[in-house]
Fold this sequence. Notes:
The chain is an all-alpha fold. The protein has a single domain (4-263), classed as Fumarase C, Chain A, domain 2 (Up-down Bundle), CATH 1.20.200. 55% of the residues lie in helices and 2% in strands. Strands 1-2 form a two-stranded antiparallel ribbon. The protein is elongated, with a radius of gyration of 23 Å.
Amino acid sequence: MGTPTAFDEKLQNLRPHPGQLAVAKKVRILLEDSEIRDSHVACDRIQDPYSIRCIPQVHGAVCDAIGFVKNTLLIEMRSVTDNPIVFPEDGEILSGGNFHGHPVALSLDFLAVALTHLGVISERRIAQLIDPECIDLPPFLTRRPGLNSGLMMPQVAAAALASECKVLAHPASVDSIPTSVNQEDYVSMAMGAALKLQQITQNISDILAIELFSAAEGVAFHAPLKAGRGVEVGITKLRAEVLPLDEDRSLQKDFEKISKMILDGVFCV
């Protein structure tokens, strides 16, 4: 029941970061022909919370960060990082520092921070969805409030995962420590950055899975009104794997399925 005004192309073009423009366009596509939107065009709401209104700015910045990291890793994969390096055509053997992992370490640390922001803003939208003070839907999106806790605990799980990501997002690359009798006296810690990022990536996909499930539950309360065409396609894909929450049940397997679907690109626009 929000307003799509914040995603207007004219507004977005005034701050043309590539990721921001791309995300805003995708949101507009997802919301096309939304009957839910048409049902409240005359409402007096001017602005939505940042977690909704600023999706292009926040998600777009994350997309730009991913693009930067992708470019860095492509350069790395196409590079020679041996030491020493043999140039047979010149008859030279040169010792250098092409092995040093700092370009990778900094990029992975950057991506860890960016993805953490994606998870934190997602958790905020989950919190909005289950709070009747924020949205005109039943508490915790349960059809039987009082008898069921609905999506109360999944939001708690999302909050815990988001907080864990904040800890893991501390940059590994600033923690150099000398080795090899001070010959290797400034190391990148890129492997540490990679290991932390692996956990963050899983956490973020789990948070997004909870948000996607929660959003589908929220849309169901507006029936027979339809969401945007793109949203309906996403919900159809979701419902092919996961049933609605009619009453409390363990949702672990459901969220694991959705998380895998996200990582596999099933919902990509």
